Amino acid sequence: MEVKLSLFGFGNVGRAVARVLLEKETFFKERYSLSFKVVSIADTSGTVWLPESIDLREALTVKETFGKLSAWTNDYEVYNFTPKEAVQEIDADIVIDVTNDKNAYGWHLTALRDGKAVVTSNKPPLAFHYAELMEEANKRSLPYLFEATVMAGTPIITLLRHGLRGDTVERIEAVLNATTTFILSEMEKGLDFDDALKEAQKLGIAERDPSGDILGIDAGYKATILHCLAFEPITFDMASVKGIVEVTPGEIERAKAKGKTIRLVATVEEGRIVVGPKEIPKNSPLAVESHENAAVIKTDLLGELVIKGAGAGLKETASGVVSDIVMAALMMR
Ligand code: HSE
């Protein structure tokens, strides 16, 4: 089956997704009988659209050489669509949002109303409009998938959406932001905050604007999404959020002396989301390192379940996005 993809966002994550689609083309064909055709790619400079399918190798070269898709004027038309216009104009089966457009929920709704599936790694649409988006998708029996919004490709969303169907979740305690883990663990080794942040940016872990990471907003968005899945829809305004900017080297040292480590911890209970720095025993599953995330999910039947894995990174995030693309394609077959 041939599946037409419309890709919004061609930054680090968008390009990582394109690379996986290119490199694993045969795998998708052999394993799922799926052949993906990228018919459009949009970045902030414009939208390249070719109904017959874009050469991804060339798209990657153009973007990496010139920094923008609009530099690509030889064989391709570059359109100045708004995302909403692009969604409406371009014939695609799946709209993929790997942008950080805070207002993307509007064009996600347009896509669903147009009969298109949506796969997104963009958090604000879900953290603010979960109920509306899911209602639209369910009404139309269309996939609206968002694995990469929380813990990158580590499948906590699939776990909460499709597993534990007879369980009642009581509580989730989780470390959901890799940038803060990276900064805190580098500070434990003696590095200062600013140098550790620069390193996280260099590794592609931090957001383009890292203030959302260090202020706890990124973890707050993710905790809100987990709340929507585990309990009922809620919005980010309900979350109480504190970041790591006030954590001092002295506090880190004192925790270390007690055999503990400070991490930015999100606690999610019915109607309650709290994000803030917390001392964690070194042997706790939440005492993660580097770009790892971890969540301890407590339910009535199963007790405590731990899920741990990469929570950021380019191919790690592409893992979640591509998994959703395959899932959406299989659901629409
Ligand atoms: N900036 C995020 C983090 C990665 O540090 O966890 C994507 O969610």
From TrEMBL:
Species, as recorded: Thermococcus onnurineus (strain NA1)
Keyword Oxidoreductase: yes
Alphabetized NCBIfam families for the sequence: PRK06349.1 (NF004976), PRK08374.1 (NF006235)
This protein's UniProt keywords: Amino-acid biosynthesis, Methionine biosynthesis, NADP, Oxidoreductase, Threonine biosynthesis
Family under the similarity heading: Belongs to the homoserine dehydrogenase family.
Gene Ontology biological process terms from the UniProt entry: methionine biosynthetic process; threonine biosynthetic process
Record-annotated active site: 222 (proton donor)
Residue ranges constituting the Homoserine dehydrogenase catalytic domain according to the UniProt record: 155-326
Residues engaged in binding NADP(+): 9-14
Name of this protein: Homoserine dehydrogenase
Entry EC no(s): 1.1.1.3
Any one GO molecular function term: homoserine dehydrogenase activity
